[in-house]
Amino acid sequence: MKIVRYEHRGTVGYGVWREGRIHPVEGELFGAFSETGESLPAGEVRLLAPLVPNKLIAIGLNYREHAREQGKPLPEEPLMFMVSPTAVVGPGEAIRLPNLEDRIDHEAELAVVIGKRGKNIPRERAEEYIFGYTCANDVSNRVLQTRDGQNTRAKSFDTFKPLGPAIETELDPSDLPVRCRVNGEIRQDGRTSDLIHPVPVLVEFISSVFPLEPGDVILTGTPSGVGPLTPGDEVEITIEGIGTLSNRVVAP
Fold this sequence. Notes:
The chain has helices at about 65-70, 140-150, 150-155, 200-205, and strands spanning about 1-10, 10-20, 20-25, 35, 40, 45, 55-60, 80-85, 90, 95, 105, 110-115, 130-135, 140, 160-170, 175-180, 185-190, 215-220, 225-230, 235-240, 245-250. It has about 250 residues and is mainly beta.
């Protein structure tokens, strides 16, 4: 099931994307919900980020090939950090560069959406706590990342975390192709089977530190091939089974 968040005639709602139409739902997204019986043509709605995250938890250096291209050893534990949820934008929204001097990179990522509260979740039960998966672009200011020696500021600027276009609730995350195209050219082309710490391990590790709650989003890391963005670029993140997240890059 593909869940989308949309705006239609001034009203924001959730719906099921099916056969080119949006079927609005009522109830609790992370509880019980049902379709209203209404149906909207996809062309009549504006897709938004599929949720407003509660917490946005990111994992660094989590693909083997990306670690090799960076010349760094494979992390023994997930490298976890927090990013501001206010950086989230949806499909079709602009990625706004704060300046034209710093190197600012794209990072295609599989994002995990948590649907159930849990603490100390064993990896064998991680699936019980996952609502679904979506595409993410973990836009990153490399100059600030190096200067600060940590990631939060470099990755938390407004518009630096596009999510979408939908949350797919029925997906096996173990071997998915993750691709990034910039102006139609493939920049990143990896698979989640290359993850150093796969999704169940991340859920176990993070929940050993603090509870995971409905609406939390985990960014699982990026494959090799990250590169700079410039104004006018069209960035597309595609993950099989979810769809394509497209955003244009604009000047400050």
